[in-house]
Amino acid sequence: MRCPACDGQLGLPLLSSPDRLHGTPGTFSVACCMVCGLGVTLPIVRPDELAAFYPQTYGAYGLPTGALGLVSHAIRRLQERQALRTPPLALLTELPAARLLEIGCGRGDLGSWFVRRGWLVTGVEPSPEACAVARQRGVDARVGTLADVELEPESYDAVVFRQSLEHVTDPVADLRRVLGALRDGGVAIVSVPNFGCWQRRRFGGAWFHLDLPRHRLHFDADALRATLERGGFADAQTSTSSSTAGLPASIQYAIFGRACSRVALPCEPRSPPAPSPPRWHGSPTGSAVAETCFTRWRTSAGRDLR
Ligand SMILES: [Zn+2]
Questions:
Q1: How remote is the CA of residue 305 from the centroid of ligand 1, in Å?
Q2: What are the strands of the beta sheet with 120-125, ordered from one edge?
Q3: The CATH number of the domain where 268 resides is what?
Q4: For the segment 213-261, what is each residue's pLDDT rounded down to a tens digit?
Q5: Containing domain of residue 226, as a range?
Q6: Least confident interval from 42-51, 86-95, 149-158, 292-301
Q7: Is position 28 within any domain?
């Protein structure tokens, strides 16, 4: 079996786990590329097989109403303020309102923040239900994936993959597609779970952010940097942060083997909470790391890859 990022040989499976969140039948494992270090979920599946891993209960796409809606709205506003004050999203707040592309926009939680700040926001999202909610919030949400959604070339000032690149089967192709949609000088922000963090090493197959079988790829800092470079994004700036959900949810998985309460697992992959204040200059393999964020300013040289 070959690595989907660099075509290198995959090693023996490093760990395995059932679907602890949604109970997809079977057991899944992760093998790492012996060249770039990228973790790959086995068995490898085709893109048209991915939908089977996302049941109707995946993702709370509807916006709650009534008293619950008021509480939810207040929480989202707090998350908004925290996320926009901290890297990597803080980088976007330093830019004048422009055109944003979000890959895996869900119900538009992030996109609507920027809509209210005057940005024109386009989202790509496979779920029609999520797109319908996102459109109500001002996001130009387009149903599909990067393989089939049409994007205006060289038109976007920024693109965000927020906990979405780990869900795809061909990351290099997807990165090249967004590279073609970015204008010269545009910025790309990619946030993924950090496969190199201590929680993954400690909890193994019970690590909450492993999320098998939906996470098809597993990046540590080096693997993500290598994948970005193959996609045309060189000179990545990197940082790490800790998710508030990761540790308690991993402990729950380690004790009970599965998710006992969705309430205790607030980190839905497509509408994640804002990260706790990250250690922007911290090591990607530091002691409290659960996520890794990468940013990079595009250069026109990247056009040669399209
Ligand atoms: Zn590789």
A1: 19
A2: 140-143, 120-125, 99-103, 156-162, 182-193, 291-297, 237-241
A3: 3.40.50.150
A4: 999 999 998 899 899 999 988 877 777 877 777 888 899 999 988 877 5
A5: 66-208+221-291
A6: 292-301
A7: no
The answer as to whether 13 is a domain residue is: no
Cα-to-centroid distance, 4 and ligand 1 (Å) = 7
Overall number of domains in the chain? 1
- Provide the b/e sequence for 178-204 (b: ≥16 CB within 10 Å): bbbbbbeebbbbbbbbbbbbebbeebb
Q: Residues 68-126: pLDDT tens digits?
A: 667 766 776 776 677 777 777 788 888 899 999 999 999 999 999 999 999 999 999 99
CA 2 / ligand 1 centre spacing (Å):
8
Pairing of strands 237-241, 182-193: unpaired
Ligand 1 centroid to 9 CA: how many Å? Answer: 7
pTM: 0.81
Classify residue 4: in a domain, yes or no.
no
Task: Indicate whether 95 belongs to any domain.
Answer: yes
User: Ligand 1 centroid to 33 CA: how many Å?
Assistant: 5
